[in-house]
Amino acid sequence: MNLPPHLSVRDSHLYIGGTDTVELAERWGTPLYVTDEARIIEKFRQYREALEKRYPDVRVLYAAKANGNLAILRTLAALGAGADVFSSGELLLGIRAGIPPERLLFNGSSKSREDLSLAVANNVPVSVDSLDELHQLDEIAGNAGKTAQIAFRVNPALEVPTHPKIATGLATTKFGIAHDLIPGVYREALECRNVDPVGIHCHIGSQILEIEPFARAAGVMMKIVSDLTAMGVNLRFVDLGGGLGIPYHHDSDPVPTPEDYAAAVVPIFLEGIRKAGISPELWVEPGRSLVSDSTVLLARVNSVKDAHSKFVNVDAGFNLLVRPAMYDSYHEVLVANRAGGKPEEIYTIAGPICETGDILASDRMLPRIATGDLIAVLDTGAYGFAMSSQYNSRPRCAEVMVRDGQAALMRRAETLEDLTATMVTPPWQR
Ligand code: LLP
């Protein structure tokens, strides 16, 4: 199997960032998420360089929903990243990581008044998703004696080749405002006292492995940019969203890179702003493509069962990695303590959750597996821990960051006691 440069096999053990995964699992226990910081830095630089060499005023906003660990946000903040935040929690994470508020964008189709107030209080720009929200924000900003900087989220009505649950730019999704209604909503915003429409935003979906849809979306957006500029809107940023996919199948054909993305999209942006006669910042919001391949999920084999399939029962399931169950998604799997071993048997890797669908990987040809072996699930840095739960009352696992042979916790494991820590006894039960 092709491995990215931060993963390697030495003496039959899988290493990440120069660290032996077998030792990490012994030191911190399993399940365990392990993230290589240097890989994230490398990915971020690739992204920014690909865009910046074509246009100097670029801002890469990390989509914090992909992985909200503060250590990762801090790494990216130190490189100058902004962040797409989708909740008050993500907004606070962005600020705690040291990202300046003007480099955050508060996105979302269903923000509460508390969310909007927090954005206003912290001077974080808001991507507005409806006229109703616009007027609520106008009122909240007015009460706070502030002017809220806003964009509108455009629904470009585009079909994109990805799983239907993560295609966000279809006309039928809950996200954004139909592109033909956009001039009208900016007109309305220009009349509001306490909001300043300074940007425009779209996001067409996730895990997209073709460049053409991004180019199409950029075309739709730049047409709108030109119309809005003619109307007197002074756009200071154009945010084209995230969505570039990654090669979950390691032996598949190469997939588009940030360089391919920039080569196709930036010329459309440049042509659009030239026609409009403006020079706004170009914003993008990658999540998965920045952090996914930085991380492996380590799980211990509890038992092996020869049944309908050869089941390898491990200690991590869809409580910690829901993507296979939720989107039928594929993640490469290795036996971390026999990583060089000859593939001999077909196994299905099953989690400990009380549901038939709790399968991490089906029918994989792997070296012979025994109880106590260590399974590594690859490409789990995006939407892995971030979508975890305590289902079946399983405490969430720890997360470790490695860098050049060093390793440190970036989140402790929850304990059994943590499970009841937020529960309250109703008075009549006392
Ligand atoms: N910007 C906005 C407004 C978004 O909604 C998203 C992702 C992103 C940026 C980042 O997209 P990315 O570059 O990561 O594709 N849980 C699903 C993915 C959901 C994506 C939601 N929005 C999965 O595991 O595949």
Q: Please tell me what the overall shape is.
A: globular
Q: Spans with pLDDT under 50 lasting ≥5 residues?
A: none
Structural class: alpha/beta
* Beta strand %: 15-25%
Number of strands: 21
Overall mean pLDDT score?
96
What is the gyration radius calculated from CA atoms?
23 Å
N- and C-termini, Cα separation:
57 Å
Major sheet size, sense and barrel closure = 9 strands, mixed
Number of helices: 12
Helix content: 25-40%
The distinct bound ligands, ions and cofactors come out as: ligand LLP
Would you mind describing this structure in some detail?
30% of the residues lie in helices and 25% in strands. With 430 residues, the chain is α/β, with parallel strands linked by helices. The strands form three sheets. Strands 4, 14, 15, 16, 17, 18, 19, 20 and 21 form a nine-stranded mixed beta sheet that branches. Strands 5, 6, 7, 8, 9, 10, 11, 12 and 13 form a nine-stranded parallel beta sheet that branches. Strands 1-2-3 form a three-stranded antiparallel beta sheet. Strand 17 (345-350) and strand 18 (359-366) form a beta hairpin. Helix 2 packs parallel to helix 9 (258-276). Ligand LLP is lined by residues 63, 65-66, 84, 107, 166, 168, 203, 206-207, 241-244, 285-289, 323, 327, 382-383.
